[in-house]
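Side project, low priority. Logging it here so it doesn't get lost.
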Amino acid sequence: MPAEKLFEPLTFKNGVIIKNRLYKGAMSEGMADKTHRPTMELINAYKRWADGGIGISITGNVMIDRRYLGEPGNVVIEDERDLDILKDWSEAGKQNNSHIWMQINHPGKQSPKSVSKQPVAPSAIPISGSAGSAFNPPREMTLNEIQDTINRFIKTAIVAKKAGFTGVQIHGAHGYLISQFLSSRDNIRHDEYGGSLEKRMQFLIDIYTGMRAALGEKFPISLKINSTDFDDKGFSFEDSIAVIKKMDELGMNHIEISGGDYEKPEMMGEGEVYFLDYAKKISSEVDTPIAVIGGFRKKDSMIHAITHTDVSMIGIARALVLNPQLPNQLKANTYQDMTLPRLTTGVKVLDKMFGGFIGISYYEQQIRRLGNHKSPKVHQNAWSPLFDIAKIHGPYAFTKRRR
């Protein structure tokens, strides 16, 4: 199948043009320095993706509050203190007429014990499931803390624009703080930010409308949102559709569909094209361009998604780490479909306990190689990424997991 459709420009309603339909999905990089500044290795990695022909690179989690990290090595932006190196990062991502959008996030209760003694959340509901013991129970946020957090999201977006990033993405998926506010499982508040879905989405609405007022109509704002939490008591398909329609009505420029969280980690899976069916459904019901992430590695799957659905963009993540030239190869018709390595320690209990986290650690290692001007190292040995997990998280990496 010809790949021309993948390289048709996408024009948003505000006039911003993306050169093709391919974007780098956000991945954990863990490459900030000890003061949470981006490093040259991180900057170099984004230049390689831009040189590889990607339309948009969406950064990994940039945190708004250094008290609450999603993982060690997060970049944190609370003010303009690191503006110069942030400008270097944005310039690297804008090479080759690419866009670079900063993903902005707060982990809420998904802040591990290794970095947070007392996480905060909409309600004091701990993380359950096999990953739960890696996280301390959260305390419920006060209304003043909610307002402060909204202001922090807006402030980080303002700094991103000033630094030269061409857009921002609000992370409302994967069980992080905004996702927690949206979920009836995680949010049992009885004030203006909890109860009905309309109240549970108010936190997101306040963040978006505050950003829009500060950034202007011409600056792209994206939302990453779960199609579902894969939990009967949590954020449902119907909830997701209602939130997306509301954000479409408010003028969101771009919406990325994903799913799952640490309790139901579907976003860590290894299948092909996880969320396409849902994205197809919602893209026919709203005007906002819908992007879908998760599992794209086959050329024909990418072309089919763009050619035969209303989906506007295709997100590629892990495949782009192992092959940063993937877009250029698609355009030149030299791309070969990929199979990602299945990592294993050879010990079933360790693979089961740490499987998803081993994958994250392995791709962080490969991003570091990109940033150091090296080629990725494709292998199946999970011991090296597992040792990295132990080194980064210390004894908390091996706390007993609940079943």
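Brief comment: The chain has one domain: 4-340.
Revisit when time allows.
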